[in-house]
Amino acid sequence: MVVSFLLLPSPLLPVSTYAGLASALEQAGAEVVVAPVEAGPGLDPHALVREWAGLVEPGATVLAHSNAGYLAPATRAAARSAGRNPRDVVFVDAALPPEAGSAPLAPARFREHLAGLAGADGLLPPWTRWWPREVVDQVVPADRFDPGAVALEVVTLREQLPG
User: Fold this and answer.
1) Whose CA is closest to 76, among 54, 103, 43, 105?
2) pLDDT score of 74
3) Global pTM exceeds 0.70
4) Fewer CB within 10 Å, N side or C side of the chain?
5) If we measure between CA atoms, which residue out of 82, 74, 38, 36 comes closest to residue 57?
């Protein structure tokens, strides 16, 4: 039996950030699809859920990372409604949605922090500049910021988000 995964990416990271994980799963014999996401001021979470639900293969495991965790239950429900029943949902360093109701994409204190980072144009800097460099180094080692490294893409390719 072939195991299949649908990776739901964080809207704050370029999809290419997930290439290493996808490759490792494929090398282990799994089929992997990294769901597309285009972050920005016009991001419609309802449309994103519909798009992601259409990518779910019956029996696939949905892997949700970061804030995609908030959308994973809705993606699973939409996929089930369309007869594309996923097997499981796994939250990988992801936000956990409440059992009922809605949740803000960021807690109030974090939103305040982000508001202080927004430029005059109202846009946030890339997420790697939201914290001091030594904090980012704990997540993405400094040697991964070398030209050609995946982390360079994290810093340079993600478009800015509204604050």
Assistant:
1) 54
2) 93
3) yes
4) N
5) 82
Instruction: Measure the CA–CA gap between 86 and 59, rounded to whole angstroms.
Output: 5
Residue carrying the six token digits 């846009």: 123
**What tokens appear for 120 in the block?**
């005059």
Using DSSP, state whether 89 is helix, strand or coil.
strand
In contact, 86 and 6? CB cutoff 8 Å: yes
DSSP 23-42: HHHHHTT-EEEEPP---STT
pLDDT for res 1 = 66
pLDDT digits (tens, 9 = 90+) for 85-143: 999 999 999 989 888 887 777 778 888 888 888 888 887 777 777 888 788 777 766 66
CA angle 133, 139, 142 (to 5 degrees): 55
Strand partners, 137: none
Contact 97, 41 (CB under 8 A): no
| Residue type at 136 in one-letter notation | V
129 φ/ψ angles, rounded to the nearest 5 degrees? -105, 10
Distances (CA, A) of 147 to 57, 131, 133, 152: 36, 21, 17, 6
